């Protein structure tokens, strides 16, 4: 088994959401097409990525307000 020092030396992978992958694909496709043909699609995908981020943040915040076991852990 590798120790932590060896693991830190390994190249790090960037984790991307499906929306980020879509944006990358559209930008690559745009390089081979007329630059303006896919601009609307890229802008739409980028706006959806912002919406996705807000949804994930809200879900994350909701999980902590309710606690891991679903119990309400708010202080009164």
Sum up the overall morphology in one term: flat
Number of strands: 0
Radius of gyration: 20 Å
Low-confidence stretches: none
- Determine the strand fraction and express it as a percent band: under 5%
The topology string of helices and strands comes to HHH
Largest sheet, in brief, is: none
Helical content (DSSP H or I, runs of 4+): 55-70%
Alpha-beta classification: mainly alpha
Mean pLDDT: 76
First and last CA, distance: 48 Å
Tally of helical segments: 3
Provide structural commentary.
The chain is mainly alpha-helical and 76 residues long. It has a domain at 18-62. It has helices spanning 4-9, 18-32, 39-66. α2 (18-32) runs antiparallel to α3 (39-66). The mean pLDDT is 76.
Which helices and strands occur, and which strands form pairs?
Blueprint: H1 4-9, H2 18-32, H3 39-66
Give the gist of this structure.
It is built from 3 helices and no strands.
């Amino acid at each position: 088994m590798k120790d932590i020092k060896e693991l830190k030396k390994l190249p790090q992978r960037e984790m991307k959401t499906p929306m980020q992958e879509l944006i990358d694909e559209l930008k690559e496709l745009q390089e081979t097409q007329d630059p303006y043909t896919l601009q609307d699609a890229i802008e739409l995908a980028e706006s959806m990525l912002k919406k996705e981020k807000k949804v994930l943040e809200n879900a994350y915040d909701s999980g902590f307000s309710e606690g891991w076991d679903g119990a309400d852990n708010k202080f009164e």
